[in-house]
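User: I'm new to structure prediction. If I give you an amino acid sequence, what do you actually give back? Let's try with this one:
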Amino acid sequence: MLRAAAEAAARTSGPASVEAAAALNQLGVACKFAGRYDEAEAAYARALPVAEAHASDESELLATVLHNLGGLAHSRGRRDEAERHARRGLRLREAYGGDARDLASDIAALAAILEAQEQWEEAERLYRRALALWEVEGDDQETAMTMNGLAAVVRLSGRPAEAEPLFRRALEMVEAERGAGHPDASTVRNNLAMLLNATGRAAEAFPLLERAAADLEAMLGADHPATRDVRTNRDRIAATLRTDGTHG
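Assistant: Good question. You get back a string of structure tokens that encode the predicted 3D arrangement of the chain. For your 248 residues, that looks like this:
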């Protein structure tokens, strides 16, 4: 349906129109969520030059496309590319003074990219900045997922005792807002499980990963990258527990 809408916008308004670029951006978002990264990249690649051509009067669209390109590159492990897009999008958003929610989203996205690059000090600073914005906005879902990111950086910085309550609070908030089976809840469960495993509590970690893997498979499918990642974590910890004689 979104693909048809993108093509219809191109026919109606022209392939170089803001409407066509916005529709292609939405198509990219849907394809990325479904784990179809090549299709998402193709949609964003078509949207980007159009958004750039209209940047003087449609800066928000360009910032949004850059945000999404950064997120896709991050998911594909292309860290330098992800950071380049995310920083450019954030600079643009800050320059034109856009919506506080969009700004918070851009800040948190860059923090996640820097987290993957082990730039933990800047990532933590950005997560805290985004968290403050989301709390002002009163968005519990985004607050929870930003808190999850902050907790991950705090853990990686060597402060697991500080990170654990952040993960647990984030999980409570996601479950309250989206339901216990939502993919975001699985993301937080996976991260909490990794902390528990790293602190010698593999037996506590395993059921969290078992639940997360089952929920992701039900919601996103067995072949989705997120499902595969959590399943790998589950299987690795299960093997450790079998070796220790504490599972199965």
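You can read the tokens as a compact description of the fold. Here is one thing that stands out. DSSP finds twelve helices and no strands in the chain.
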